[in-house]
Amino acid sequence: MKSIHNRPAIVETRAQIGHWEGDLLIGAAQRSAIATLVERKARHTILVPIRGGHSAQRVGDALIATFNELPPALRRTLTWDQGNELFHHKRIEQATGLGIYFADPHSPWQRGSNENTNGLLRQYFPKGLDLNLVSDQRLQEVAEELNGRPRACLNDRSPRQLMARWQRQACTT
């Protein structure tokens, strides 16, 4: 496992797009989960359904599929906590090109954007809810709502606006 302390310094500055924070939002009786991914610079949120349990194999498969849908410039790093669900981190790195780093134990502030987003998501998906009952369409709707919300930390722009600006710049270079 690579420690967050070995992560490239540019990640901390939020100056470059493509660096992600991730975690699992766990549902009722710890039998269901959604992977939550938040891009550090734009605060763009992706919600990934984890169907059939949240084993390392299933989480790895879901993250590989999700990240491989993104352009390579959006697949730089992923910072996660030290949960067993990311036991297949080397497989995920090889399949996606991401560098995966792990936060220190009991240090949620090291993935602050993701922790904040998970708090917002609990307004939509309260603890005790069976997340297997949440449709992929509903997950997409919630992610779109969060991504359309202006943020003070983004000078009152939304994650959607920042991602669109990045895409326009990427097309011209």
Task: Describe the protein in words.
This protein is 37% helix and 17% strand. The protein has helices spanning 9-13, 56-67, 89-96, 112-124, 136-147, 159-172; strands at 19-26, 33-39, 45-50, 77-80, 99-102. The protein contains 6 helices and 5 strands; from the N terminus they run αβββαβαβααα. The protein is globular, with a radius of gyration of 15 Å. The chain has a single domain (4-172), classed as Ribonuclease H-like superfamily/Ribonuclease H (Nucleotidyltransferase, domain 5), CATH 3.30.420.10. A 5-stranded mixed beta sheet has the order 3-2-1-4-5. The N and C termini lie far apart (35 Å). The longest helix has 14 residues, at 159-172. It is α/β, with parallel strands linked by helices and 173 residues long.
List keywords for this structure.
173 residues, Nucleotidyltransferase, domain 5, 5 strands, 17% strand
Multimeric state of these chains? single chain
Main sheet makeup: 5 strands, mixed
Radius of gyration: 15 Å
How is the CATH topology named? Nucleotidyltransferase, domain 5
Q: Structural class, from helix and strand content?
A: alpha/beta
Helix content: 25-40%
Quick one: CATH superfamily?
Ribonuclease H-like superfamily/Ribonuclease H
CATH class placement: Alpha Beta
Number of strands: 5
Distance between the termini: 35 Å
